[in-house]
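Posting this for the archive.
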Amino acid sequence: MSSSKSFQVRSWGKKSAASEESSLQSSSTLVSSGSDHCVGPFIWDHLIDQDNKDSSSSLAVDIVFVHGLRGHFLKTWSTPGKHGANVFWPGDLLREDMPEARVISWGYDAMAATAEPGSAVSQNSIFGHAGSLLNDLADKRKGDPKRPIMWVGHSLGGLVIKEAIIRAANSSTYGRDPRLGDIYSSTIGVIFMGTPHRGSPKATLGESAARLTARLLAAGSNMQVLGNLRPDSHALEKQLHDFVTVSSNIPVVCFYEELKTGRAGLIVPRASAVYDGKMVSFDSIPADHREMARFATRSDIGYNRVLGHIQSIWASYQDARRREEGERARKVKEEQQRKMKELKKAEEAVHSDILRWLSFSLMRQREDHIEDAHRATLDWVFGDNPSLPDQVTERDGGVLPFSSWLSKDGAPAFWVSGKAGSGKSTFMKAIRYHPETLRRLHDWAEKRPLFVCHFFLYELGPDLGKCREGMLRNILYQLLKSDHGLELSKTVFASQFLGDNDQLPRFSAGIGEHWGALRGYFNDALHAIAQRNWRLCLFVDGLDEYRTVEKWKKDKYTEADLEMVYEGGDGDAVWGSNASIMDDHRQVLTFFKDLCVYPNIKLCLSSRELMIFEDGFAKFPRLRMQDCNQSDIRRFVSDQISQTEITEDGKIALTVKITSKSCGVFLWVRLVVNSTLDGYASGDSLARLHEKIDQAPSRLCGPRGLFMKMLEPAIKDRQVRLESSRIFQMMNTSLMYKQARLNAEYIWYGLESYQEHEAHCDLAFKTPIDFSNTNELVKSQLLKEARRMFKGRSGNLLECEPPDYIVIFMHYSVHQFIYRKATWDHLFPPDPEFVPILAMLSSAIIQIKKYDKAVIARDDFHLDEYNPKGGTFTSYFFQAVEIARTADGYHGDNPLYVKLVDELDKTMTEIYRQVPISRSNHCYWPHTSKPYYDNFLLNAARWEMKGYIKSKIYNPQNEVSTKLSSQKLLEDLIYMRSHFLTVMRKPDLIVRLENCHPYGDCWWGTDLSIFLFLIKLGADPKLAWDQFLSLGYAIAFAKLPNGLVVHRPNPVLGDLGSTWIWILLEILEVGGDPFQLAKITCEYWTHPEPLPTAMVSVVEILPLMGRILVKTRSLGTFLAEKITLLDGKKPQDPAAYFRAAFKEGLDLCSVTD
């Protein structure tokens, strides 16, 4: 082998005894041949062949051996064996005991001096050898630089190893050489064998001998290495200090020699061979300094000790690695769980937003007011009752009981039909929640996810309670609210979960405008359910009460239609003669029949027996309520009459008579039973009770129907008749103007406000503010008395039950009957003096005055937070405001209305003075705080009570006074809002706007035309123009920190920008300065970036702004003089610049100044 730097590589594997002896002889030959060729970085690798470079891929650890002074990469570790061959124990013994290890023996010129005349010796110091070791080892580990390393160093070799590890640590810390850094991070243990950590006392003697040899023979020597081995070497002390620092977490074993080396004695004493450290252990080998690194057999005690430490280090590393991997896996799992939780939280937030978007107030109004089924009724649904008629017979001759339909595949729909008042809604509500229904549906689902949803259409309810939009929103809400709702939501509303910022439709606009979007979401939900093979069952009640709201407001039943219904033979047979409403019925029928194509959907639908439904549902199984509920009616009547002291025979006779005459109409039964019980309580004999039942009309409506007969006692007395009329007027007003449902207290005080012996609504002014604690007791007694009166005045056609005492019609058909013109004219005389909306306002003021002081204080009253639910002072107040706003539109010029609103102002002012109500910046009442609310007109303006405002400031005899008053109010409004402008320009204003009630603080969210109204009264727009423009831009646009302007649609309040622009156009007509508009537009729109890029988010608003510029006829001046970008430059081609911005088709080039 030449003296040039190279690698000597030897293959060494597991062998048989014969091959092992041959290998040992080969090893002996190699050792002998290498005795004269040990200069240079020799590496011995016992496994890697020259011809097979990839054979090391299965190895797990490198064990690097470094010899000492005057050592040899093979001879240092070799000794003659029993067969005379040399045993190289790292390859011949350790390989067998550590098959996963790759053994590397590194050689270097460790001669301190040579006896050969004229020969040279390497002048490398310990530090130089350490650098060579690192570079050679790094080059050898290119294929697997992260493989663990164990070091074994003899004598000086240990010092070279320490220096190498120190340098590698520095590379790792400072990032000088990643290859060397990998060596440090891969080091798992070090074994020192006779290493002079604190020098050797023999170093001085060796240094003298080396000098003598060099003089006598003119040979080479390395005094630097020998000098560093002195016991007082500062270099060794520093090295030891540095090594202890970098090896604090590396296991270290220090072996020391037990025997002397001939006359030289102990070459490295124990005191120098060992040192104290965090993970340092000591051991000894019963041999001298040279022989302590040579082992011939496995039984050699020294080999066993070294092997034990090597295996212990390896086992500790593997345990630590397993713990690290376990900890890493735990952290990865925790991180995954954390991310999953964050993702789930984010998804749940989006999901909650979607649910809020779908929900609407009074979603459960109809369902909540459907009476629960009477005790033990409807048992026949899931039982075997052969006495029932063929209530489930299909038109094609097949028979399918309802209970079987629930649990089996077959007909996609089941029709529950019946006359008005036969109990269809009660049946649908009871069956929807019946445990047996769910059990049988789960049988049908066969362990697949099951969705069960419902909707109860109700013509007397809110608009969304009777139209397709409300139905789909309600059903979608239930689907997404279910156990698998989140998964379904992520499919149906995927873009929202992906963060695409798709805007959901804004339901503040007309109801019919979003049908397409809702139908699309609904279809996506059905497809998703079908693709997953899930199951869905829909219960929908009252198909005959379905209405297209926009048409229903103008295409109601005519008097001729009602005449056919109430005076014809079979009312339900001719019901629906109105062409428009027949179209509605056809629409809802088509909608549900289209759903029948899904094999995984069941539909349970109910309606009256109209001809359109008879034809449409002809092929589906059917249940006729009036043919099935005779047993239920009998039980109900029996239970009610059993409370009396009539004889058993008498009870049976009454029960049989009422049941047989009912024709299956539960509503008729309830009215007759109530009348019978009232008669019995009044002293009627049993014969008289039978006579009244015989006289009871069999039909409900019409001039000779049961409803009319029930009202006969109420119309005999003039005063009772008047009170009855006024009760029904307030009920109708509440429904017409969509006020909150009235409780008995509202109607009671409304009646009291129009007593004949007092001025109208005088009670509202005379009633003092009373905070006494007795009010609740008085209120309870009043409600009970009012309940009795209302039932009597309405002939039991109105219901008013605790605990909330809400007054409602006992059935939808009662409402249809009462407000038919012919019925009303027959029952009630004209009553021009009574104004129901003002009676309701008077009642609201009286109730506020009687509210418990302690409850008001607890309520944390806030003008800007509307609570639509009853029972709190806030809800009482806002209901009064809503009534006042409604009255303003119809009776704004009525002096009594103005007087009542003044009384509301006076009442609230006094309450604020007496009660410690929470007073945040936005809940001050006029007269009690400044500067926000200087007078009640500001509140009237924010609530858009234009009639009241006009009555207060308009003076036809003094135009100047009117102008001054309107101007002051306009300026006060702008001043009151000026402190919000900074907030408005922030992008997150949308959050604040969404959380505000229309009648609360954000008055701009309902109708900005209050500005136009005041201007038309005489306010000068020029004095308010700048503030209005700033306010409008702040509302319609958000100016981001980087200067970009973005349009802000509002899902709650609608498109504020469009509203503002419409009003702006109107103000321009009455004197708004167009050049000021151009100026402020420029301030908001200009940005260093090209305008089309900056305006990409406001494409939909640009055409409207373009119309403004065209209308002002000042576009030329605006383009030529007013446009200056923020960098001081002007656009080279202003026309092209704005043509790109107004890319919705507005051709600005054709517009001239």
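Residues 197 and 240 are 7 Å apart (CA to CA). The first strand starts at residue 42 and ends at 45.
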